Amino acid sequence: MTGPLAGLRVVELAGIGPAPFAGMVLADLGADVTRVDRPGVPNAAARMEVLNRGRRSIAVDLKHPDAAAVVLRLVAGADALIEGFRPGVAERLGVGPDPCLARNPRLVYGRMTGWGQEGPYAAEAGHDITYAAVAGALAHIGRAGQPPTPPLNLVADFGGGGMLLALGVVSAVLAAQRTGGGQVVDAAMVDGVALLMAPFFVGFRSGYFSDDRGTNLLDSGAPFYDCYACADGRYVAVGALEPQFFAALLAGLGLDPGELGPQYDRAGWPAMRRRLAERFAARARDEWVALFAGRDACVAPVLTTGETAADPHLAARGTVVEVAGVPQPAPAPRFSATPAALGLPPPGPGEHTDEILSGAGYSPSEIAALRAAGTVA
Questions:
Q1: For residue 280, how far is the Cα from the chain centroid?
Q2: Over its length of 377 residues, how does the chain's per-residue pLDDT go in tens digits?
């Protein structure tokens, strides 16, 4: 493995969404991540699960009475474990923080949940949309007079969830290197989303940010910070907040600044929006992209995921790569001295079971006995 986390050993109890995203980020940056999957029949679709890339997989039936002993043996040689079960599940399976830290006192035990390990909602089910709703983000995403718009599952699952779990694990590992002691990292998506909203908490109290959706500078309220339809039905994104960018926007559109009035006069925003919409509707998206190239007007094409690989900037940076025929984002961020690189392709469940058990000190006869008993697959 290459990357800044080379040498870090992580055990990941397989789940969906944010915890696998954290595992992917850690693996992308060089960590040796062992994914503990549920036993199942490997299939071709497993190779398409980009969130599972970079790991080896061992299939363990965590409900089997001997399964906890296998996980604890893996934990003994690890720096961290991450799991995304609902509160109490890992404890019932015998692989909660207490037995894991007893086996390895330096272990960092990373827990990914929606509501956290305690609190009135801790035991309730949820998804990205509900965590973003309660944390105060969802109410502000969407247009005025319309219901809030779910922003895919980027805000809670990945931004406020998996990304912060990965950061929390690395931070706690650094602390363990200093102190010699491990700890539990409680990464709750609702906490993470609230953290992402930090500037808007302040903006609301200072009067800069309104609770009325679609009326603020960054939520489609301002006509110079929005998306516009072009002649071909595709869109451009405009972010001309500062006066110099706004001036470049109007110049590119061939509009007279005096026609639209002062940029920040809210009374003139409806008319300004109509005029901008009319102009953008006159040409195809890529025509506008070519016209605004180099103008510093903060105008960009709204690309679909299928279009990103062909974008000249992303292509030059290698932001989108193709592995075994599957387009996917390259590891990020980038490091000058310890560059990250894509490692193993997404594994099938249990693809590396024997290899992992051997590395944990199991003999061939012990591995055979575990398989015969149905503990591993």
A1: 32
A2: 689 999 999 999 999 999 999 999 999 999 999 999 999 866 767 878 999 999 999 999 999 999 999 999 999 999 999 999 999 999 999 999 999 999 999 999 999 999 999 999 999 999 999 999 999 999 999 999 999 999 999 999 999 999 999 999 999 999 999 999 999 999 999 999 999 999 998 887 777 789 899 999 999 999 999 999 999 999 999 999 999 999 999 999 999 998 899 999 999 999 999 999 999 999 999 999 999 999 999 999 999 999 999 999 999 999 999 987 889 999 999 999 999 989 889 999 999 999 999 999 999 999 999 999 999 99
The answer to whether the CB of 290 falls within 8 A of the CB of 312 is: no
Give the H or E element holding residue 169.
helix 163-179
Give which of 298, 294, 296, 327 is closest to 310, Cα–Cα: 327
**127 has catalytic annotation:** yes
Tokens representing residue 310 in the block: 């062909």
Catalytic residue among 32, 37, 79, 157: 157
Q: Is 352 a catalytic residue?
A: no
- Dihedral sign, Cα of residue 188, residue 189, residue 191, residue 196: positive
Q: Which amino acid, 180?
A: G
Q: How many angstroms separate the CA atoms of 335 and 57, rounded?
A: 27
Strands 32-37 and 55-59: parallel
The residue from 127, 186, 296, 311 that is catalytic is 127
Helix (H, G, I), strand (E, B) or coil at 229: strand
Residue of 79, 54, 76, 48 lying closest to 2 (CA atoms):
54
